[in-house]
Amino acid sequence: MSSYALLVVGSLVLGQPGGDWFNDYKPFADIEARLHVMAAERPDLCTLVDIGDSIEGRDIWALQIGGTAADKPGVLFSGTQHAREWISPMTNMFIAEHLVYGYDTDPTIRSRVDSAEIMIVPVVNPDGYVYSWTPNNRMWRKNRRDNGDGTYGVDLNRNWGAGWGGTGSSGTPSSTTYRGPEAFSEPETAALSDFFIANPQIVSAVDFHSYGQVVLSPYGYTYDLPADHDLLMDVGTGMASAMTAVHGETYDAGPTAGTLYQVSGGMKDWVYDDQGALAYTIELRPEGSPWFELPPDEIIPTGEEGLAAALYLIDRSIAVPEPSTLLLLGMGAVGLLWYALRMRIAKR
Ligand SMILES: [Zn+2]
Questions:
Q1: C-alpha 192: how far from its chain's center?
Q2: Any residues with CB less than 8 A from the CB of 324 and at least 6 apart, and which?
Q3: 21: CA distance to ligand 1 center in Å?
Q4: Do residues 345 and 238 make contact, with C-beta atoms less than 8 angstroms apart?
Q5: Mind listing the pLDDT tens digit of every residue in the chain (348 residues)?
Q6: 44 C-alpha vs ligand 1 centroid, how far in Å?
Q7: Considering the domain boundaries, does residue 34 fall inside one?
Q8: Would 339 be classed as within a structural domain?
Q9: Quick check: is 182 catalytic?
Q10: What's the whole-model pTM score?
């Protein structure tokens, strides 16, 4: 069992945080309310930021945890670009709760929150998520854009400006993978990309989806491997191993196109190409059936797996060695790659 698993078990034994909130899926209003409670109860630790509005005027929230000192690396977690993937907002909220309410009692949480700025955007697509809670619409995936031809919705994870328009996206508005008329045509992707641009301290990011139990790295829009492939795989495999260690559920890791299928206009490719940050999609439980309808009693175990990945990524994002340390400790190729990536981010 890894130290991450022990940590998760330890915090549950202590009886905090979360209560029974994670015993069932929660509608958007409950998620918003919970975010406001966290920000109100711990203003010393977190700030709730409205980063933009959806097409139907709902707020897109980011919970910023751990202060905004300029010298701290930023790590961003997001979810629910796809409305029907209900385990995604719950896992983001589970991570947020444990970071905020574990701060006082768990020294390993405190050291991470003190050393990083952690940003959590649990519901990128509030309109689609609300719609998926209405009768007969549980399998809705896209946002709620009126396409003007009798169809609704753009697939937000095909609307980002990296490889936009390529294989693995559709130009047909009725398609579930419709990419929209142009990159960032949708206010939801525009809001989140603007948030990245406004926060250049972000060095790594995970966008949670379901299903498949796999940690996916760039690229999606091409089978070519990115320049930082070795580093991306080293960190991605580490997250997958940390997740597997919690409950023995298998999580694999690999580049998106070769591991899953080609996806053009996806978020993580833009975050990596344009922002220079390590970027991943994590497909949460289940592995297959029952697909998007994961039983509610798996919300907490999946949250524990997501938290293990988050803590691992935060650790790796904090612990970027200085060049002198690299030489002294023989940190090797992966350490050098991290250092080079951070220098590129610092120069932006
Ligand atoms: Zn998805």
A1: 12
A2: none
A3: 23
A4: no
A5: 333 333 444 344 333 455 699 999 999 999 999 999 999 999 999 999 999 999 999 999 999 999 666 678 999 999 999 999 999 999 999 999 999 999 999 999 999 999 999 999 999 999 999 999 999 999 999 999 999 999 999 999 999 999 999 999 999 999 999 999 999 999 999 999 999 999 999 999 999 999 999 999 999 999 999 999 999 999 999 999 999 999 999 999 999 999 999 999 999 999 999 999 999 999 999 999 999 999 999 999 999 999 999 999 999 999 766 666 655 555 667 777 777 777 776 665
A6: 33
A7: yes
A8: no
A9: no
A10: 0.91
What is the tally of structural domains in the chain? 1
Q: Which of 85, 97, 188, 283 is catalytic?
A: 283
Compute, in angstroms, the gap from residue 85 CA to the centroid of ligand 1: 6
What is d(CA 334, CA 341) in angstroms, rounded to the nearest whole number? 11
| CATH number of the domain encompassing residue 154 | 3.40.630.10
Domain coverage including residue 124: 3-322
Show the CA angle centred on residue 247, arms to residues 243 and 250, nearest 5°: 55
CA of 103 to the centre of ligand 1 (A): 31
CA 321, CA 326: separation in Å to the nearest integer?
Answer: 6
